[in-house]
């Protein structure tokens, strides 16, 4: 049965870096309200907001100190109510980020747990005694260093991420009910749904045993012990029954490292969530433990194979959120188009078409619709991103020089996608009237909204065309609900696939190279990022889409 959320086009906002309305250099809710007409012009139908809850901002809001309050740097609850109301008037829904694997160490629950070891809140988190004068296990956190933080001479608390993000104890049913109550409160408030953060970390290996060290620090990645653990489906089932199933909402889970045989836990008829992000094709350039210095060589064909496998396997079970960028990824141009000399309109629009018309709900990350690329930082001190500093230290421990480590951090830093949104070429890019909290991308005088808004040959205008085709054209049903059919063409430089629905067959062709490639097509084109196509040869980074059948 078709669902309303399957028709959405979602725009992801990193609020701190979107638009500053009050002159403090930090983006806020009123700044988002200010730009609602921009979203209407683009054509998106939902806005996903990265966390705006009360937070000390150790990890830019993914460390929540009060689930029921708005961080004053972003505004007030009244501002959010206004955004929901004004968005609804424009047909734009609001999706919140849901972070329930961990809280901030400044959350009242954790403060109470530390202050009184006998309080009920102690069991809201994971506390363990040390072993032989050391931490309970030798697991390494996602951000580097031990997952254990000492609180007394022989007691530690567990954090899969930063030490300021203690993990919640999902084994505790009282804690789970607190979480469900909070989720229902937000859905009753009028938000359309949630993107669910790090949800596959909520179940830990209860044996808490050491692993074989995998680095010079004597530690082992916590991922095999704290992510996608057996039994997590029990938590998911209860979560869904107590919250999402009671509302006509939209949910999408962040689910790194989920094997395709486990998809049914997450999505589909018996899954907890409406859809999920599949990262099996997004982290193709780094190792399985997601350490940036373990680089993988890749070819266009290998990327195509990962992409097609994802589509085929996920579509057997349910729905996926299709994406190239988010707040945790570098810009897709730098990741997919390695030669910076090739960055520009054609390469940006080619990779856009490649992902946007896959089967799933498309997500656009702020600035992606402008063709933004990575920024360049000249010192590790210039990075705000907590994981960039952690990865940098890991690289030094593994023997990389400072310059080598800095180069790798520049390639992969989350700051690449978190630079302030460039609205024009003024001193602070129209983001603010004062110096922003994070340095602007140096490309902003050229790559900005004002430069592209009325230019019919801009990346922005190409995104508008794609959204129109999916949302309002005679091809909408096929591009939304149509089955995905991979085309294993012999030319490894091409990514070709079909979408089929009720007798209508659409073919999407992407030239993933900076050279001309042969491709014969005599059909009338639906979409083309060049002004011409001779029916025989694709130009460098050309993408075309055409109607093959219409029975």
From TrEMBL:
Residues 12-418 form the Glycosyl hydrolase family 13 catalytic domain. InterPro entries: Alpha_amylase, GH, GH13_cat_dom, Glyco_hydro_b, O16G_dom_2. GO terms for molecular function: alpha-amylase activity; cation binding. Keywords: Carbohydrate metabolism, Glycosidase, Hydrolase. It holds the Pfam family Alpha-amylase. PANTHER family: ALPHA-AMYLASE FAMILY MEMBER, NEUTRAL AND BASIC AMINO ACID TRANSPORT PROTEIN RBAT. Belongs to the glycosyl hydrolase 13 family. This is Alpha-amylase. The lineage of its organism: Bacteria, Bacillati, Bacillota, Erysipelotrichia, Erysipelotrichales.
């Amino acid at each position: 049965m078709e669902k309303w959320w399957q028709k959405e086009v979602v725009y992801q906002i990193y609020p701190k870096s979107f638009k500053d309305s009050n002159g403090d250099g930090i983006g806020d809710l009123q700044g988002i309200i200010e730009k609602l007409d921009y979203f209407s012009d683009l054509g998106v139908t939902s806005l996903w907001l990265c966390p705006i809850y009360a937070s000390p901002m150790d990890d830019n809001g993914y460390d929540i100190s009060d689930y029921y309050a708005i961080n004053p740097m972003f505004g007030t609850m009244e501002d959010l109510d206004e955004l929901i109301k004004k968005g609804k008037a424009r047909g734009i829904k609001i999706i919140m980020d849901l972070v329930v694997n961990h809280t901030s160490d400044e959350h009242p629950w954790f403060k109470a747990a530390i202050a009184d070891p006998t309080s009920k809140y102690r069991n809201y988190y994971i506390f363990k005694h040390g072993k032989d004068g050391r931490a309970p296990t030798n697991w390494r956190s996602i951000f580097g260093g031990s997952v254990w933080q000492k609180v007394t001479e022989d007691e530690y608390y567990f954090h899969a991420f930063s030490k300021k993000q203690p993990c919640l104890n999902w084994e505790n049913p009282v804690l789970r009910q607190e979480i469900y109550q909070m989720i229902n409160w937000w859905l009753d408030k009028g938000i359309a749904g949630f993107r669910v953060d790090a949800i596959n970390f909520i179940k830990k290996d209860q044996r808490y045993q050491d692993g074989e060290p995998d680095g010079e620090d004597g530690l082992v990645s916590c991922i095999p012990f704290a992510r996608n653990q057996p039994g997590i489906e029990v938590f998911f089932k209860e979560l869904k029954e107590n919250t999402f199933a009671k509302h006509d909402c939209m949910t999408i889970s962040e689910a790194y490292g989920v094997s395709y045989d486990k998809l049914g836990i997450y999505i589909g008829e018996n899954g907890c969530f409406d859809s999920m992000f599949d990262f099996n094709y997004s982290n193709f350039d780094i190792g399985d433990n997601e350490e940036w210095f373990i680089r993988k060589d890749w070819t266009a064909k290998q990327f195509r194979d990962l992409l097609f496998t994802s589509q085929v396997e996920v579509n057997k079970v349910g729905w996926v959120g299709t994406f190239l960028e988010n707040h945790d990824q570098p810009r897709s141009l730098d990741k997919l188009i390695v030669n910076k000399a090739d960055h520009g309109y054609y390469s940006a629009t080619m990779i856009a078409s490649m992902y946007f018309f896959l089967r799933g709900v498309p997500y656009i990350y702020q600035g992606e619709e402008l063709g933004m690329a990575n920024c360049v930082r000249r010192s590790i001190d210039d990075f705000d991103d907590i994981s960039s500093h952690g990865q940098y230290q890991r690289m030094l421990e593994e023997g990389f020089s400072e310059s080598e480590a800095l180069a790798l951090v520049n390639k992969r830093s989350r700051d690449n996608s978190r630079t302030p949104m460039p609205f024009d070429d003024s001193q602070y890019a129209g983001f603010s009237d004062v110096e922003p909290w994070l340095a602007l991308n140096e490309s902003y005088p050229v790559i900005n909204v004002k430069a592209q808004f009325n230019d019919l040959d801009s990346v922005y205008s190409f995104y508008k065309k794609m959204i129109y085709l999916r949302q309002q054209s005679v091809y909408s049903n096929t591009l939304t609900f149509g089955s995905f059919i991979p085309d294993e063409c012999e030319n490894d430089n091409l990514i070709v696939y079909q979408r089929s629905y009720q007798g209508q067959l659409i073919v999407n062709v992407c030239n993933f190279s900076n050279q001309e490639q042969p491709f014969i097509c005599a059909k009338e084109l639906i979409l083309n990022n060049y002004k011409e196509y001779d029916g025989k040869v694709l130009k460098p980074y050309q993408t075309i889409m055409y109607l093959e059948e219409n029975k």
